[in-house]
Amino acid sequence: MDTQLACRIITEIKRLGLAEKVTFHVMGEPTLHPDFFCILDHAAQENLPVGLTTNGGGLNGPIGTRLLEYPLHQVDISLQTPDRDSFALRKAGRLTFEKYREGILNFFVSYRSRQRNSIFKFRFLNTTFPCKSMERKTGPIRVISSTVALRSVFADWLQEIYRLMGIDEGRYRKALGRLNRLVSYRWNVVEILPDVFFETYVLGDWGHAFHDGPVRKAWAGFCFGMRDHFAILQNGDVTLCCIDFDGHTAIGNLHRESLTEILHGEELSRIMKGFKKFKPVHAFCQHCLGGKDFISWLTKPLTTIGALYLLKPYFYKKSRLFD
């Protein structure tokens, strides 16, 4: 994103109270932006809370060293390849899994000692279904796909974090017992230390992004897009949610109008009124929430309404591993 545009957006969001915080996220690795720290400085000057979602690959170098001085509201490490076997699929060149994890954990310990008020999350992808359609496009994928795998990965990372933080063996064993109550099909949010979390996100199909066949348009459905977040792509497009990385739901562009004008526009109003009645009206939303066959077309809308709107407390499992 153009640096001037990024700074202008941050200023508008803060001065008009359009969002509680901004998160550098959506597509690409934020820390690779050539003016990353200039944009961070501007957000700090505006006193706007900032979150950072990073794959963690650069935290063991100069970027990580500079970040230690920034009291971010939240740091999310996206651990899509949290073990040696899954990391091997990244083809990361000279960066080994051991060095990758060591860099992340060393940064965490240093950051935690300096920025005690920042939230720190280790985020893991999990799934309960085969990734065949995605693998046909991307190649082999290894994602946490069972309760056994979930507990194993969590235990491995927990052990290393507790060791580095000087947590005694007794507390680790007690935490491990609580960890072994987790199941993979839930959205797990586990507080391993004060304001330090392990969190799982269920891997979806990104709105059928990896499916080449026909999709039946959704007859109903529900989504959190524009209710608790929206996305701004590098070209200035404002989109309804982070799944829409190609800008199919662009409701305006910040090179042509202000964010305030876009958020008060007729198109967004029409979309939100539809979702209040559990009716997706945007073509991309109908595609995203639709089904590949008659059964999925019939049941998926009910699932989204039930899981996201009615049964979220059941699927959203928050727990803590410490006293």
Radius of gyration: 20 Å
Mean pLDDT: 86
Q: Can you count the helices?
A: 13
Structural class, by secondary structure, is alpha/beta
Question: Low-confidence stretches at least 5 residues in length (pLDDT < 50)?
Answer: none
Structure overview:
It is built from 13 helices and nine strands. The chain is of the alpha/beta class and 323 residues long. The chain is globular and about 55 Å long. It starts with a helix and ends with a strand.
Could you give a short description of this structure?
This protein is 41% helix and 14% strand.
Layout: helices, strands, pairs:
Elements: H1 3-16, E1 22-24, H2 36-45, E2 50-54, H3 62-67, E3 74-79, H4 84-88, H5 97-114, E4 119-126, H6 132-138, H7 147-164, H8 169-179, E5 187-193, E6 196-202, E7 231-232, E8 238-239, H9 259-263, H10 266-276, H11 283-288, H12 294-310, H13 312-315, E9 316-320
Parallel strand pairs: 1-2, 2-3, 3-4, 4-6, 5-9
Antiparallel strand pairs: 5-6, 7-8
Helix pairs in contact: 1-2
List keywords for this structure.
single chain; 323 residues; alpha/beta; 7-stranded mixed β-sheet; two-stranded antiparallel sheet; 13 helices; 14% strand; globular
